[in-house]
Amino acid sequence: MKTFVVLAALVFTASLSAEVHKQDVDIQAPDGVNLKGTYFSAGQQGPAILLLHQCNMDRHAWDGLAAALAANGFNVLTFDFRGYGESGGEKGKKLMEQAEQMRKWPADVDTAFAFLTSQKDVDQGRIAVGGASCGVMQSADLAVRHHEIRALVLLSGVVSDAAKQYIGDTTLLPVFGAASEDDSGAAQGIKDVMDASQNNDSLLKIYPGSAHGVPMFDSNAELQPMIVDWLKARLTAAAASQ
């Protein structure tokens, strides 16, 4: 794996030509639970990304990045995990209740992914998924189940052994990973994924401090535009290889 530690901000080459349309949507889970999402449409044919939130937030944590991606031609879906935000499901505080909800998340994520890929403006050959904290494992496991995913963005988290194996076995999946150095467990989890990656375009960024997941955007102004530029480059390359 070729790992890069970027020391200076990338030039943000965002094109604001796309017209962004933002719409709240309802997605029905396999067991009938309603999952509340927001679809950011670029209003034109283009790549797509599903963003999975961290467990101390909801889908709106991604609003800034989702809007920036949509302005750059991406069609973006965010949604609240069951038990969180505006989605249905028990919002239990006990560990056993939370664990019961989380066991149903993979099927919910698959359903949200199917909703995204069914949209008419989504280029089926240019699809990515991103996650923060607990969304990291869900994102990586989705890539194991859906090999059409062409890029991963992982912020502050760990992946399953199956996902690490898959990332290590394929050269076709670039990974963008970021974490804070004082957020030790999450930083090590991201480093482990990057060590496993066999794609030369995989990119690692470790920041000072302890910000976890999406809050890294607040303390590291380069990070959000860096993700946009990296995804644009990777999915442009994916289109060229088809």
SSE diagram, text form:
Elements: E1 21-28, E2 34-41, E3 46-52, H1 63-71, E4 75-79, H2 95-103, H3 105-117, E5 122-132, H4 134-145, E6 149-155, H5 161-169, E7 175-180, H6 184-196, E8 203-207, H7 216-219, H8 223-240
Parallel strand pairs: 3-4, 3-5, 5-6, 6-7, 7-8
Antiparallel strand pairs: 1-2, 2-4
The tally of beta strands, per DSSP, is: 8
Count of runs of 4 or more consecutive helical residues: 8
- Which quaternary structure do these chains form? single chain
Q: Order of helices and strands, N to C? A: EEEHEHHEHEHEHEHH
List segments where confidence is low: pLDDT < 50 over at least 5 consecutive residues: 1-16
Helical content (DSSP H or I, runs of 4+): 25-40%
CATH class: Alpha Beta
Overall CATH architecture = 3-Layer(aba) Sandwich
Question: How would you sum up this structure, described in words?
Answer:
This protein is 36% helix and 24% strand. The chain is an alpha/beta fold. The chain has a single domain, classed as Alpha/Beta hydrolase fold, catalytic domain (Rossmann fold). Strands 1-2-4-3-5-6-7-8 form an eight-stranded mixed β-sheet, with helices on both faces. α3 crosses α4 and α5 runs parallel beside α6. The longest helix is centred in the C-terminal third of the chain and has 18 residues. It is globular.
Gist?
The protein is α/β, with parallel strands linked by helices and 242 residues long. It is built from eight helices and eight strands. Helix 5 links the parallel strand 6 (149-155) and strand 7 (175-180).
